[in-house]
């Protein structure tokens, strides 16, 4: 999103990271960090809201009114191979592939666009209530976020909600869930305006673990205060994880490791 927020989210993250729980779960979720494997070019004009990897290409949905688009990108060169721009009244948000199609929904317009993935030709639209933030999928369902602690599962054929979970660390709801990715049976979620990614159980919403990406992009390479971590993509064929952010100059391939094993590889 482009609207400033208070420090409530940072306070929540600090509480989750630093405070042991004595309620529902006696031990806090473990915290992991990253090992840098490689870097790929990324446009600093792309306000990343949706991101995934498929068949050797990055797919990216970008936001901001008048700048929103969906793009297909060559990882090695950063070249945009295909692009579809949204009309200026739409603020683009999360994207996901479903069969031969690609879905892109919007922040406050209550419209989800469906494209033919091979050429980004618009096919149809869905309507929904509430805000649109992140989107990913399992083999059977779509999963969406709306900036709250709730993740909604949707029927891909109708976009109707089928169930939902509330994400919690212990008894504390974890809100500002943003861009999503489904990785090895877990939901990975960016926490808006933080360097943390939550690994979430799709069954009951509890936080399985945290990944701390602090330091991945130096502060002096961020365009502005909204240049936050927001973009997770997974390559299941080669077990590769990629992360990026809004207006970041790079996409990072990373390996998740315990905090005491952090070591940067030469990109």
Write up what this structure looks like.
This protein has one helix spanning about 10-20; strands at about 30-40, 50-55, 55-60, 70-75, 80-85, 90-100, 100-105, 110-115, 120-125, 135, 140-145, 150-155, 160-165, 170, 170-175, 175-185, 185-190, 195-200, 205-210, 230-235, 240-245, 250-260. By secondary structure, the chain is mostly beta strands. The chain has a single domain (about 10-260), classed as Neuraminidase, CATH 2.120.10.30. The strands form five sheets. The chain has an eight-stranded mixed β-sheet, covered by helices on one side. Strand 4 (about 70-75) and strand 5 form a beta hairpin. The two termini are about 30 Å apart. Mean pLDDT is about 90; it is low at about 1-10 and about 15-25.
Tag the structure with descriptive keywords.
267 residues, mainly beta, Neuraminidase, 8-stranded mixed beta sheet, 4-stranded antiparallel beta sheet, 22 strands, 4% helix, disordered N terminus
């Amino acid at each position: 999103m482009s609207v400033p927020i208070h420090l409530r989210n940072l306070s929540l993250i600090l509480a989750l990271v630093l405070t042991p729980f004595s309620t529902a779960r006696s031990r806090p979720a473990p915290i992991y960090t990253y090992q840098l494997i490689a870097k790929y070019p990324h446009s600093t004009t792309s306000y990343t809201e949706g991101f995934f990897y498929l068949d050797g290409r990055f797919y990216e949905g970008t936001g901001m009114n008048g700048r929103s688009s969906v793009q297909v990108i060559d990882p090695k060169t950063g070249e945009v191979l295909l692009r579809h721009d949204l009309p200026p009244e739409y603020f683009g948000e999360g994207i996901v592939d479903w069969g031969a199609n690609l879905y892109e929904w919007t922040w406050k317009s209550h419209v989800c666009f469906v494209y033919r993935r091979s050429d980004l030709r618009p096919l149809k639209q869905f309507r929904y209530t509430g805000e649109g933030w992140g989107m990913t999928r399992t083999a059977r369902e779509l999963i969406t976020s709306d900036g709250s602690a709730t993740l909604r599962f949707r029927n891909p054929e109708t976009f109707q909600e089928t169930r939902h979970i509330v994400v919690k660390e212990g008894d504390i709801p974890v809100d500002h869930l943003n861009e999503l990715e489904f990785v090895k049976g877990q939901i990975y979620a960016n926490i808006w305006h933080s360097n943390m990614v939550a690994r979430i159980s799709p069954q009951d919403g509890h936080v399985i673990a945290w990944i701390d990406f602090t330091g991945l992009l130096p502060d002096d390479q961020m365009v502005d205060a909204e240049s936050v971590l927001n973009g997770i993509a997974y390559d299941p064929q080669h077990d590769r994880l990629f992360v990026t952010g809004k207006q970041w100059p790079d996409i990072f391939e990373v390996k998740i490791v315990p905090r005491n094993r952090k070591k940067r590889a030469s990109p």
